Backbone:
């Protein structure tokens, strides 16, 4: 009796439950689809670290900043970026071309910027985006590998999102060598290879929606298919004496003079010949990068703020410079030790016992103590490979170039010819047997 009286409402209950489940399921699906749509248009993909693009969250959090940004006018692409004149001319051309491309809705050109750390690659990429009126998004190569299997989906999300940009998006891949390395090497995991393939798939055609800007300290590690996608190569070298002087002046102005003359600040500056001091510091800052010099500026400011009377004296400036020079030497020593260890383990001793010099890791020219002057602009992208195969070495080239310009030209010609030859060979090889998976 008990069971019968209880069982009567069961069918209604079950039907109700089923309807509820269907309702919940379809509602979840519908919100999922809507969510994905909104995410593709507005949400920042997880691989993108920083973006100038308008996001809903950002607009709610910082409404004034957002309005200001929307109203802002395009700036000079090279404002506050100190480069040697040849490089400056070249990057200015890049900036003008990019801006015109945007205005004419043309196809963007992909750029590779390479050079030692702290030479202004990221700084310029951001300025370039602002100058051209595009949005920028920064992703870093190191974030890709830890994503494992999710890397492919995340990569597609980045490009889905990039394609919805109305202003055009400058997609800046910092530390690009971390994930764009050769697929044929065993070191690269299956997941990373799949992610790289997704990246290659999405960048196969030139786009009028996004422009790729890759920055790397070691571009010789790139997969060949990446090199093939690059239209312009720019080498950011360490600053030469003149550039160092401009940098010292720039950061002295920014971190010392402006706060000292600004009024409300606590900082005061002792009387001495600032111009002469800056020239002197530039000479001592041999081999330092733009970043190291900017840090020197911050160090002067900190010194003033930490002093009792808030006065920055010449002696205090000198002490910070001494520290910075010492620290720079120490860093270079570490780099040299590491390089020597690597050379010992990787390469057999050179025949005839001749000491072979290297265009070291991170683009530094060792041995130490020698000035790393601003070099030429165009990149010998495969320098590393050529070196192994006995072509003209950059070091030899530098030495020769100083003594005879014609010898240098010959050498560059030879390098270019050999590079082209090798590229052709590579294409032939890939046509017949694409062993490393390079798309044809
Ligand atoms: N050419 C330069 N002109 C002016 N400032 C510079 C220059 N290079 C570096 N700096 C200063 O150093 C900081 C770091 O530079 P940036 O991030 O552009 O270096 P990077 O070349 O991207 O280095 P990394 O290879 O380590 O990423 C800049 O914010 C700027 O203050
Ligand atoms: Mg950078």
Residues:
């Amino acid at each position: 009796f008990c069971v019968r009286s209880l069982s009567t409402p069961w069918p209604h209950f079950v039907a109700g439950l089923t309807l509820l489940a269907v309702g919940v399921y379809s509602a979840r699906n519908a919100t999922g689809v809507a969510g994905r749509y909104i995410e593709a248009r507005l949400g920042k993909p997880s691989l993108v670290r920083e973006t100038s693009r308008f996001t809903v969250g950002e607009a709610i959090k910082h409404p004034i900043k957002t309005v200001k940004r929307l109203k802002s006018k395009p700036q000079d692409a090279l404002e506050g970026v100190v480069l040697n004149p040849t490089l400056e001319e070249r990057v200015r051309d890049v900036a003008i071309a990019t801006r015109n491309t945007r205005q004419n809705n043309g196809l963007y050109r992909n750029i590779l910027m390479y050079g030692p750390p702290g030479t202004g690659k990221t700084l310029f990429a951001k300025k370039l985006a602002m100058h051209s009126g595009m949005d920028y998004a920064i992703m870093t190569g190191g974030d890709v590998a830890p994503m494992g299997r999710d890397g492919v989906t995340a990569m597609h999300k980045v490009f889905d999102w990039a394609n919805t940009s109305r202003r055009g998006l400058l997609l800046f891949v910092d530390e690009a060598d971390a994930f764009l390395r050769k697929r044929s090497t065993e070191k690269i995991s299956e997941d990373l290879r799949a992610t790289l393939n997704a990246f290659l798939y999405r960048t196969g055609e030139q786009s009028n929606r996004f422009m790729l800007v890759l920055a790397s300290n070691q571009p010789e590690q790139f997969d060949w298919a990446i090199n093939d996608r690059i239209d312009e190569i720019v080498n950011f070298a360490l600053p030469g004496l003149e550039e160092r002087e401009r940098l010292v002046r720039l950061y002295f102005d920014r971190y010392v003079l402006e706060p000292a003359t600004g009024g409300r600040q606590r900082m005061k500056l002792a009387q001495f010949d600032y111009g002469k001091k800056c020239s002197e510091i530039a000479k001592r800052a041999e081999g330092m990068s733009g970043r190291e010099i900017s840090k020197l500026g911050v160090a002067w400011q900190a010194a003033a703020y930490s002093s009792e009377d808030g006065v920055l004296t010449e002696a205090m400036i000198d002490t910070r410079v001494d520290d910075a020079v010492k620290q720079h030497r120490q860093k270079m020593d570490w780099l040299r030790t590491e390089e020597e260890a690597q050379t010992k383990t990787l390469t057999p001793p050179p025949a005839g016992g001749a000491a072979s010099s290297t265009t070291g890791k991170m683009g530094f020219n060792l041995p130490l103590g020698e000035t790393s002057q601003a070099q030429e602009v165009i990149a010998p992208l495969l320098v590393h490979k050529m070196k192994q195969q006995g072509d003209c070495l950059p070091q030899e080239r530098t030495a020769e170039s100083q003594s005879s310009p014609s010898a240098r030209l010959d050498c560059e010609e030879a390098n270019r010819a050999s590079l082209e030859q090798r590229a052709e060979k590579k294409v032939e090889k890939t046509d017949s047997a694409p062993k490393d998976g390079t798309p044809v």
User: Anything to note?
Assistant: The pocket of adenosine-5'-triphosphate (ligand 1) is lined by residues 80-83, 117-123, 174, 215, 217, 236, 247, 290-291, 294 (CB under 6 Å).
